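Input sequence (73 aa), recorded before submission:
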Amino acid sequence: MAQRELSRLINLLVKAHRATPFPTPAVFQGDGYKLHASTTQWSFGKQLQFEWGKERIEPRQEKWLFIFRVQEC
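Predicted structure, token format:
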């Protein structure tokens, strides 16, 4: 249950941040966990080329770090 919820949350955060950047670090609280999200500049990514099948994927200027912490119930 939590894994699916976290995957959705991470996808939404990254997509929302691309549309309208928000300040990080940020903390999101779920049922029995906290997700800490932060970004840093990633200039090294400009030197790389990524592909998904035949589709080229452009690296972003930021990289994300997500830390998952379980909370006591």
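Checked by second reader. The longest helix spans residues 2-19.
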